[in-house]
Write a structure and sequence with these properties.
The protein has helices spanning 9-16, 20-28, 46-60, 65-76, 81-84, 100-106, 113-122, 137-148, 153-181, 186-213; strands at 6-7, 36-38, 41-45, 96-98, 125-128, 131-134. With 214 residues, it is mainly alpha-helical. The protein has a three-stranded antiparallel beta sheet with strand order 1-3-2. A three-stranded antiparallel beta sheet has the order 4-6-5.
């Protein structure tokens, strides 16, 4: 295990490429967590350095300090990745580890505290130190593509909440069907069949929806 490093204020500011005055300002605005106190000496660690580098990256991407402060508060009070994966890693979905600036790049201008909190509530995002974990690479990529197509992220997340309700109902329907006729261990084996049915029915439903517009 790597030895935990600690820095005095002047050393931390130099490593982060900012002035001591700026560091004090960030601390007063609660953009970074309080340092560890030892008498009159304040000690900072790599967690603080990573947060300062994230602030710099988000500023470069056009975020305001007020927005970053709100985002930092949401981040610090968000769901831990242990809670996010509390039922175990999804069997078919691949979680993705992201830095805050990488998340901002995926959803340029759309990573607000409100959207961050909504994604946390959905169980899409969890935090692990200074990193963010998205529960599903597929959902991350699809969500980002929808935003690039001009759909606001808030609306994407709202729609995702409604899709979740229907998906839960479909999963319950299929599970009940299988368990009435087969052992419980067959449910995992048959899940590709459920996915194929849902994909085919959704495709047909979109065909019907589009034909009404012609």
């Amino acid at each position: 295990m790597a030895e935990k490093r600690e820095y005095r204020m002047e050393e931390l500011a130099e490593l982060a490429g900012i002035t001591v005055r700026t560091l004090r300002f960030y601390r007063e605005r609660k953009l970074i967590p309080p340092p560890r106190r030892e008498g009159r000496i304040a000690w900072y660690d790599d967690h603080h350095l990573a947060r300062l580098r994230t602030i710099a990256a988000l500023l470069e991407r056009g975020h305001t300090l007020s927005g970053i402060a709100e985002l930092a508060e949401a981040f610090d009070h968000g769901r831990d990745v242990g809670d996010l994966l509390g039922l175990g890693t999804p069997t078919e979905e691949e979680p993705v580890r992201l830095t805050p600036e990488e998340l901002a790049d995926h959803f340029a201008g759309e990573v607000t505290p409100e959207n961050f909190a909504a994604a946390m509530e959905l169980g899409y995002l969890g935090t692990d130190g200074e990193d963010i974990v998205h529960i599903s690479r597929r959902l991350l990529e699809v969500s980002a593509e929808l935003v690039r197509e001009g759909i606001p992220l808030a609306e994407v997340l709202s729609a995702a909440s409604r899709v979740r309700e229907h998906a839960d109902a479909l999963a319950e329907l299929f599970a009940d069907l299988v368990l009435r006729h087969a052992p419980e261990e067959d449910l995992q084996r048959m899940r590709p069949l459920a996915r194929s049915v849902v994909e085919a029915e959704l495709s047909l439903a979109l065909d019907r929806r589009l034909s009404k517009r012609d």
